[in-house]
Amino acid sequence: MSVIQKIRDKYAVVIIVLICLAIVSFLLQDVFFGSNSMFRQSTTVGKVNGEELDYRDYMQRIENSQNRMRQQMQGASLDEETQQYIREEAWDQFLREHIMKAQYEELGIEVTQLEVADHINGKNPHPLVLQNFTNPETGQFDRAIFDRVRENARQDQTGEVSAQLLAFDNAIAEYQKNLKYITLVHQGINYPKWLAAQQAADNAQNANISYVQVPYATIADSTIKVTDAELNKYIQDNKARFEVPETRKVEYVSFDVVPTAADTAAAMTELLKLKAEMDTTPDIAGFIKLNSELAFYDGYASRSAIQVPAKDSIIDLPVGATYGPYRDNNVLVFAKMLDRKTMPDTVKFRQIVLIAQPGLDSAVKKRADSLAAAISGGADIAALATQFSDDPSSKQTGGEYTLTPNGYFANELKEVKDFAFTGTNGQLKVIKLAVGGYAIVKITEQKNFGPAVKIAYLAKPVDASNTTSSDALGQANDFASKNSDQKSFEKNVQQKGLNKRIADNIQPMDFVLPGLGASREIVNWAYKADKGDVSPVFTLEDKFVVAVLSGVRNKGLAPLEEVRPQVEAEVKKVKKAEQIMAKLKSPASIEAAASATNQPVLTADALNFSTPFVPSMGFEPRVVGAAFNKAWGTAKVSEAIQGNGGVFVVKVNSYVPAPAPGTDYNQQRQAYEQNLKQVADQQLFQVLKKKSDVKDNRAEFFTSN
């Protein structure tokens, strides 16, 4: 026991220290590496009223929108402008969901599972249900299709179908929540009888007036002195007019990478090698798709539709012959004649498109054959298309299309277009579609038959070589190394005779700058640099750029130097008005006002309280209001009135009854309330968004295009 006691006495302090270190280590581990650690990269892309918005959720929304857009554009690539639109649309929807969620919770708005089920299984299915589960044979909602999808969800081991149905249920719930919210807002809109009576009384008479106008232009701007203090006070007194977003301004010099004669020769050598392969390949379409800068068009074009250099020489080629090389902008091209035939340059046809859901192909084919038989028997294809077609683009026009050989038509309906040009006028055919389903097509007109050709274009771009690019980069680096601030930047631009350009009003989430294209790195730099800083060399697609940050504007009120001309004009107008009004004082008559200012007495008739615009004056609501001031009436002349175009003195000559509107109170109420409901529908969310505390941190997550 004594030995154990000695060990305890000797190592007690050490053991206590080790225990303390273990506890501290555990706590620090959470601080440094836990879910709330100081070194964990934040995924908060923004906040709405303190609620965090997650970056991953935002990016998923962008990806979903991109996929939908690509489907609409038949897989075409999305340019930067489209990408920017998608990012902003996804962000706005993200904000909308969180802002409206708070509104629903505050008002106690809910949509229960029973409500959702009733909108799906009840007697009156929800519009989303009707839209998504329509029988292609009848064009009507078919509950059996929905039941079949629900059964597939039970058997789907991946869970994807169940997830889609859950998203569908959530969409119905959100739709109904918003409907309840909007209904509450609409119910709060009212046009009371007292207001109708007051407006009727206000507008019951017109005023005929005499007036004197002293235009502000009668006083020279040079005689009015203003101070910065006065200008800044005007900005403070009119904050709503001068609120601005956060922006940056950069001035830049671009060193463009322009292909040289040597680069053109290199492209020509490569093109000639490809041309030799083209001459022997049995698959010209596949070869062009793999090797040409210009896409292969698997169709025929009329002479008038072909717009290329050396057009006549190319069109007159015999089948199998090649023309070129020739230059078309920045590409070198060989054109090979593949085929020629006689075709109409315009066709008209009507179609009924029946889309087949999985497992329903035979039923849809039977329906298509039935419709074709009816049309052959004399039924109106236009009426049938309006009733049965699944093609929304032509449903309202009886399925009618007018096409030219190279005109756009949905790729999913390529079989229809081919038949329209190769069939005969009046011919009717049921065509199986590659996307699933059938089209009943009747050619109604073919005109202007003439030669049409199919041409393959083998094109090679003339790109700048590494040497050319290195030369431009060397010039950019040399320029950048000689600039340390905006003053030296300006000096070197002038000495070297360079073309300086400006990109203004750059916002944090801009990805494209005018004249530069995709320039996200420059935007990021502009928001991290200080005013007057000169950038490193930025490498863009076909140029190198050196920029200087010449302007920084924070969110809030615009600084005086940016709005000085506008504010000076307004403040001078106020000072001019004060001078004119001091000169007029309180005129005893309209003639006295004219005499004091050396201005003529003018007249204006039929002024109405509801219309602030007067043809002889312009927009002058204060003058119109003065004409109906009971304190003056027809007996007295008005005081001097500070208007938009000058200072006015008004004398009412007479009041005459105004034509009474031919509507009763109920009609007025309906029109008034309907107008306000439309305004509410259009502007309500923007008002809620403005009232919300929104923090946008997206720029921190996007460092490049």
Mean pLDDT: 87
Number of extended strands = 23
Number of helices: 22
CATH topology of the largest domain: the name is: Chitinase A, domain 3
> Which architecture name of the largest domain does CATH use?
Roll
Main location: membrane
Keywords: Cell inner membrane, Cell membrane, Chaperone, Isomerase, Membrane, Rotamase, Transmembrane, Transmembrane helix
Membrane topology: Single-pass type II membrane protein
Domain PpiC: 344-445
Provide an overview of this structure:
Keywords: Cell inner membrane, Cell membrane, Chaperone, Isomerase, Membrane, Rotamase, Transmembrane, Transmembrane helix. InterPro entries: PPIase_dom_sf (IPR046357), PPIase_PpiC (IPR000297), PpiD_chaperone (IPR052029), Trigger_fact/SurA_dom_sf (IPR027304). Belongs to the PpiD chaperone family. The chain crosses the membrane at residues 12-33. This protein has 22 helices and 23 strands. Helices cover 46% and strands 22% of the residues. It is extended. The chain is an alpha+beta fold and 705 residues long. Helix 2 (55-72) crosses helix 3 and helix 6 (143-155) packs across helix 7 (160-187). Strands 6, 7, 8, 9, 10 and 11 form a 6-stranded antiparallel β-sheet that branches. A 4-stranded antiparallel β-sheet has the order 18-3-22-21. A 4-stranded antiparallel β-sheet has the order 12-5-16-15, with helices on both faces. The two termini are 74 Å apart. It has 5 domains: 1-40; 113-187, no CATH class; 205-243 and 562-657, Chitinase A, domain 3 (Roll); 252-258 and 465-549, no CATH class; 261-463, Chitinase A, domain 3. The relative contact order is 0.13. A hairpin with a 4-residue loop joins strand 10 and strand 11.
